[in-house]
Amino acid sequence: MPVKVFLTEDEMPRQWYNLNVDLPVRNPLLGPDRKPATPEYLGTLFPMNLIAQAISTDRWIDIPGEVLELLYRWRPTPLHRAVYLEKALETPARIYYKNEGVSPPGSHKPNTAVPQAWYSKEFGVKKIITETGAGQWGSALAFSCALVGLECKVYMVRVSYEQKPYRKMMMETWGATCVPSPSDQTKAGRDILSKDPDSPGSLGIAISEAIEEAVADKSGKTKYSLGSVLPWVLLHQTIIGLEAKKQLKKFGEKKVDVVIGCAGGGSNFAGLSFPFIYDKINGAQIDIIPVEPTCCPTMTKAPFVYDFGDTAEIAPIAPMHSLGHTFVPPPIHAGGLRYHGMAPQVCQAIVDGLIEPRAVHQKECFEAAVLFARTEGIIAAPETGHAIAATIQEAKKAKEEGKEKVILFNMSGHGLMDLKGYDLYFQGQLQDYAYPEEEIYKALELIKDLPKPQLAKAGS
Amino acid sequence: MPVKVFLTEDEMPRQWYNLNVDLPVRNPLLGPDRKPATPEYLGTLFPMNLIAQAISTDRWIDIPGEVLELLYRWRPTPLHRAVYLEKALETPARIYYKNEGVSPPGSHKPNTAVPQAWYSKEFGVKKIITETGAGQWGSALAFSCALVGLECKVYMVRVSYEQKPYRKMMMETWGATCVPSPSDQTKAGRDILSKDPDSPGSLGIAISEAIEEAVADKSGKTKYSLGSVLPWVLLHQTIIGLEAKKQLKKFGEKKVDVVIGCAGGGSNFAGLSFPFIYDKINGAQIDIIPVEPTCCPTMTKAPFVYDFGDTAEIAPIAPMHSLGHTFVPPPIHAGGLRYHGMAPQVCQAIVDGLIEPRAVHQKECFEAAVLFARTEGIIAAPETGHAIAATIQEAKKAKEEGKEKVILFNMSGHGLMDLKGYDLYFQGQLQDYAYPEEEIYKALELIKDLPKPQLAKAGS
Q1: pLDDT digit string (tens) for B267-297?
Q2: Which one of A4, A106, A143 has the shortest CB-CB distance to B377?
């Protein structure tokens, strides 16, 4: 029995799937004037050929040949059958996982970093600026800019810059510049430093610095880039689910019952699940589950509102489940899941009842990830641990029900740069954090005057 | 044009290649009595089914089905064409590399760790003890014991244990016990600590502790394991070269001109090259190049002698190029290449003129590895940097000669746990070390009374 299935280059998907076309309702992004963001406004931040993807009405969007060739450096990624985990759980379920950890930067992030770099170069961009928290996105963009031949600068949240020096070294090895944020290189950074010279930084501040430097170059040769949330990011990630479908067929599976991914900004979950949401819209019975930390319960507890993408209120305003853009989640080790908002398309799918979010506590995730490491042999990122925990819950449910379910989850990245979390887990020093309800309400108070998104199609 | 070729499970090699059968001369290992080591003596250290592989007269040895299934967790590994590196070098050569960095522990080491764990379990072993320096081998064995279901204990050189805590955390995540050496758990360790409580440890001391604990269990349920040098280790690694041959054919290559691997104990080099040495013995024209650090010039400067495998003179005595078992190489970042000896089969191939060793300095290796990272996108281990440096030398030579050569090298592991070396390189803080000739002669003086190995077949 095979435990892993590859695809050849010829079998690699040639098009991305654009879920926008199939969502009943689409609320637009808003600009600083709180009106629908115009392409002109978005064009100050992003190259126009990416913006075109966000407003495209095509269900299938061609992947350019040169992008395919770049993706082929590490794709298609293998689809594994988790036979050893199944045995350990004594479940009748067949569990499959897509291994996105085999990319050189170690996660799914280059699936969009590579096309973003390529489209930027096509558009005449010479330099891309971004921010990064824990470092996964920054290293993926540094890698992609090296392959394509673009300059790359990354503002990295200072506390992560100091705690995770290896991520900075990765970016530098790929030729990028990595600056701890707040820095003295932007007005936003200098303002913070003048008030608090020892500021540990935040993703919100780093976004402000990256955007400020990008828009300051009026030649249009410098653009800003984001690693999740935006429509083209999610579009590029759909290659994960499209490959997985072909590979499940090679395993002889005719249907899948449960699809699971962890969700911080939503991109790895969207990448695996959107092609299956397409099937669901067309009549398939599939439980599709995005998984988040209990202490940062964006999807399971927060309202669907319009809110800012960043703390400093510079980024576009997005329709999403939001804990409020000033909300600071507890310091769990899954840094990639500590975001106050969620990709609008994922939120719209929740509102429309297409997917069923779930929250799990950190210790359950590490317990699941350790079982996964000791059976399947792969050390997963703490973020991915959330998907594994939900998978184990579903496999146990299948056992109770005596059902031969097919469960598919996204092994979104390896945890070789995140071993400190495992170490603390073994030492019994990890804690589960309560859902900080009061703080969330305080944070939401700040956006009560923003417009409200539409919930259902007019007249429906 | 494809830039990467996979194989399916069905195409995976079913047998390992045993070079011993084709070497004109074989000098045996010696036991503590300085006479050819008997299976009984070796059996106190290793399970007998592995020892049987060392003395087998079969050219091809079947890979058990269960081992194949375990290897299939991450194998076959991809063979890449280095199109971006070729472009950067403007070489007419076609460069290929086998990517062993995709294994969960990140290197070629599990190719033998998995079968060693499996054969040990078959033989009734319950616990495997080993030592590790930088941690690659220890984490590969921990991974393998988790998959097979064996207890695993690793004595890790204390200075590495403290400098590279992530390696220890990897081993613990896979359920192994990792102890800094010297420890108070063995007599050998206690002896050292009583003289020097702050001893940083050494591979020699760690070997002594691991062997002492393994042989102390008279039930036979505890065995010792080694990650390089020994015949069955090299045998298991030949899957690399056997896969590469099939993949080169898929790329349409009819022959290969140059085969390159870095060599510390010799296992990754042997794994790639032995199947090509077989072709060379049968008439093919191939330059086969093991690459070592200039400051630890085992193959390029040291004599072919009998010497101990470890500093403490406990391990078997092996016929090999040796810098002397008390030689301590300068502190280069390629920790896996800092060994005083070399696998006997590799040395025998040098003596027989089948392969041509080469030495390179550390800074050239990091320069080569940075170019590789920025063109091919993969951050290689510092050890692998030696193979890349020699590959670039050969690609430049092909350009000078105007020849369309086919060059194949082993990308033996990723460097995500070794980024400190890259960082020091960028800071201009790396140095090249001179070949410490005098120290080597002092170290060799200690073994002048050991027997001398046979150089050529009697009568030839």
Answers
A1: 999 999 999 999 999 999 999 999 999 999 9
A2: A143
Q: Encode pLDDT of B203-238 as tens digits.
A: 888 988 999 999 999 999 999 999 999 999 999 999
Instruction: Please list every residue in chain A whose beta carbon sits closer than 8 Å to the beta carbon of residue B428.
Output: none
Distance from B89 to chain A by nearest Cα, in Å?
A: 15
Q: How many CA atoms lie within 13 A of B231 on its CB side?
A: 28
CATH for A65-106+232-447 is 3.40.50.1100
Q: Domain-by-domain residue ranges, chain A?
A: 65-106+232-447
Of B134, B87, B137, whose CA–CA distance to B114 is shortest? B137
Could you list the beta-strand ranges (E) of A72-138.
79-81, 94-99, 127-132
> What ipTM was assigned to the predicted interfaces of this complex?
0.94
Give per-residue pLDDT as tens, A264-314: 999 999 999 999 999 999 999 999 999 999 999 999 999 999 999 887 788
- Name the pTM for this structure: 0.95
CA angle A441, A446, A447 (to 5 degrees): 100
B175–A374: do the CB atoms touch at under 8 Å? yes
Determine how many CB atoms are found less than 10 A away from the CB of residue B3. Answer: 17
Angle at A380 between CA A376 and CA A383, to 5 degrees: 140
| Chain A partners within 8 Å of B376 (Cβ) | 73
Contact (CB<8Å) B416/A417: yes
CB contact under 8 A, B73 and A377: yes
Which residues from chain B sit within 8 angstroms of residue A426, using beta carbons? 172-173
Structure-block tokens of residue A446? 């700040």
Which among A169, A175, A420 is the nearest to B419, CB-wise?
A169
Minimum distance, in Å, between the CA of residue A399 and any CA atom of chain B: 23
